[in-house]
Design goal:
By secondary structure, the protein is α+β, with helices and mostly antiparallel strands. It folds into two domains: 186 residues, no CATH class; 175 residues, no CATH class. The protein contains 14 helices and nine strands. Strands 1, 2, 3, 4, 5, 6, 7, 8 and 9 form a nine-stranded mixed β-sheet that branches. Strand 4 and strand 5 form a beta hairpin. Helix 7 crosses helix 10, helix 9 packs across helix 14 and helix 12 packs antiparallel against helix 13. The longest helix is centred in the middle third of the chain and has 28 residues.
C-alpha cells in the first residue's frame, strides 16, 4: 500500500475537540463560534508537534490517527477528529477490532476525505506483533475505502525528535517545538490544559483509600439526616424550600472549592448524600456550560476519589459530562470509564459512555445542561448564565 501522491499538501485547520473510547482517546470536532488557526500538514513535523494540543496530553507508545474532513469546497481539509490507540494493548484482538470499528464509524459519519497516522514509539525492540498490528490498522482503513494520506513514526513528541515516513524510510525530518505549535498557543490562550502525559489524567480519578474510609464512617449518618429532613419537608409542604437550601449549600461548596480549599470528610459525606436527591443531582449538570464549571469539576473529582460505588459514579459522571462539553475528550473518557466501573448500571454514565464511543458531538448533549438550569430555576436558584446561549 502506498500513500496518495497529494498525501499532505492541503492546508488543514483544527476545531474544538472532545471524546474518548474504551480502547482509545478521541476528539471529534464540533462547530465553534471562533475560527481556528490553520494547521498545514505538508510539514509532518508541525503536525506531530500539534498532537499534544489536539489530544490534551503528550501521547506515548500510541498510534494517533487524524481524521480529515473537506472544507471550503475542497480547497482545504480540516482535522475533524484525533483518535489515539494504546500500543501496549495492540496485541489484544478485541480492543484492536473495537478501535477499528470506532474509527471507521467516525470516518464514515464525518464523510472523511482521508486520515493521517502517527506512530509514537520509543522502544527499539518495537518491531514485533505490535507494529504489525499498527500497520494492519492502516491497511484495514485502506480496505474500508479510507485514504491514508500519510503515516509517520517518531520515538517521542518533543522538539528536535526525528520522524520517519512509514511508507518511505528516506523521508525524514525533525519535530517542531510542541509548546510553540499554533494549536498549543491557541489552546493555552483559551485556558485549556495540555498535560504532560496520560497518567496526569488518570491520577485525578485514583481513589484515596484513607479519605474514602473516613467519609464512609460519616456517610450513613449524613444520608439519614438528609432523608429525615426531606421527609419532614414533604409532610410540611415545604419540599421546594428544602431542596432549594440543599442546592444553595452545594453551590456554596463549589464556590469554596474554587478557592483551593479541599473539602473535609464531613462535607464530602453530606455532599454525597445530597446528590442522591435526583433534582439536586440533575441541576448540577447545568453547571457544565457556565462560569462555575471548573470549580465544580474540582469538587466532583474530590468526591469521586473519596467515595465508592454509586456515589463515586455520580461524581465521576458529572465530571465526565463537564469535560465532554468543554472539549476535553480524553479526560471525559477517563472520568466516564471510572463512573461505569463504579456502577455499571448508572444511567447517565452509560449514556455518556455510549455517546463517546459513537462520537456524538458535544452540542447534542447541551440540552441536558439546559435541563439542569431549568431544574435549578424551578427550585428558585439561578446557577448562572449558560455560555454560548443565544437567549
Amino acid at each position: 500500500m502506498t500513500p496518495s501522491t497529494n498525501s499532505t499538501r492541503r492546508a488543514t485547520r483544527t476545531g474544538p475537540f472532545p471524546r474518548a473510547l474504551g480502547c482509545a482517546e478521541s476528539t471529534p470536532g464540533y462547530p465553534g463560534k471562533r475560527p481556528r488557526p490553520p494547521l498545514r500538514v505538508d510539514d509532518p513535523g508541525a503536525l506531530i508537534a500539534a498532537l499534544p494540543a489536539l489530544l490534551g496530553f503528550v501521547p506515548e507508545r500510541s498510534l494517533v490517527i487524524a481524521v480529515l474532513h473537506d472544507i471550503a469546497g475542497g480547497a482545504a481539509d480540516a482535522i475533524e477528529a484525533v483518535v489515539r490507540f494504546d500500543l501496549d494493548v495492540a496485541t489484544d484482538t478485541r480492543l484492536f477490532d473495537q478501535f477499528i470499528a470506532c474509527l471507521t464509524s467516525i470516518c464514515l459519519r464525518e464523510e472523511s476525505t482521508g486520515v493521517l497516522a502517527v506512530l509514537v514509539e520509543d522502544r527499539a525492540e518495537f518491531d514485533g506483533e505490535e507494529v504489525l498490528r499498527a500497520i494492519d490498522l492502516i491497511e484495514v482503513l485502506a480496505d474500508e475505502g479510507i485514504e491514508v494520506r500519510g503515516a509517520w513514526s517518531v520515538p517521542a513528541i518533543a522538539a528536535g525528535e526525528r520522524y520517519c515516513s512509514v511508507f518511505d524510510t528516506f523521508a525524514t525530518g525533525l519535530v517542531a517545538d510542541p509548546s510553540s505549535s499554533i494549536v498549543a498557543v491557541t489552546h493555552v490562550l483559551e485556558g485549556k490544559q495540555i498535560r504532560g502525559s496520560r497518567h496526569e489524567m488518570t491520577a485525578v480519578m485514583i481513589p484515596d483509600d484513607l479519605l474514602r474510609a473516613r467519609v464512609r464512617t460519616q456517610l450513613a449518618a449524613a444520608d439519614a439526616r438528609y432523608r429525615a429532613g426531606l421527609a419532614a419537608a414533604i409532610r410540611a409542604g415545604n419540599l421546594v424550600a428544602y431542596q432549594r437550601r440543599a442546592l444553595e449549600w452545594v453551590l456554596w461548596q463549589i464556590a469554596d472549592t474554587a478557592s483551593g480549599s479541599p473539602r473535609a470528610e464531613r462535607e464530602l459525606a453530606r455532599l454525597a448524600a445530597t446528590l442522591r436527591d435526583r433534582p439536586i443531582r440533575d441541576a448540577m449538570y447545568g453547571l457544565a456550560l457556565g462560569d462555575h464549571a471548573e470549580a465544580a469539576e474540582l469538587l466532583w473529582a474530590q468526591l469521586a476519589r473519596a467515595t465508592p460505588g454509586s456515589d463515586r459514579a455520580e461524581a465521576a459522571a458529572l465530571l465526565g459530562f463537564s469535560a465532554y462539553l468543554r472539549g476535553d475528550g480524553p479526560f471525559a473518557g477517563v472520568a466516564i470509564a471510572a463512573a461505569v466501573e463504579a456502577d455499571a448500571e448508572h444511567a447517565m454514565a452509560v449514556l455518556l459512555e455510549t455517546s463517546l464511543q459513537t462520537g456524538l458531538r458535544p452540542e447534542r448533549l447541551r440540552r441536558l445542561a439546559h435541563c439542569g438550569h431549568q431544574i435549578a430555576a424551578d427550585l428558585g436558584v439561578d446557577i448562572g448564565p449558560i455560555a454560548g446561549c443565544d437567549k
